[in-house]
Amino acid sequence: MGKPQLKPFDREFRAAAKASKVDDAFIRAIAHAESGFNAKATSTKGAMGVMQLMPETARELGVSDGYAHEESIRGGAKHL
Prior knowledge:
about 80 residues; globular; mainly alpha
């Protein structure tokens, strides 16, 4: 998987961590494992974006564009 990434979307991860009260490092670890920080990632099952949210879950979390990295990170942190 490679070493942890601290630069991609730094501001967005910090803001999501603060808003959701979920540790920044934990949110980053999920993004690293799920998409490798690729905002355009799509799984074979249909999960999308940095946090690999399923479309229905994304809608439930208020994410209108699962490929928009800021929305995906915010929604993923909220989900966690």
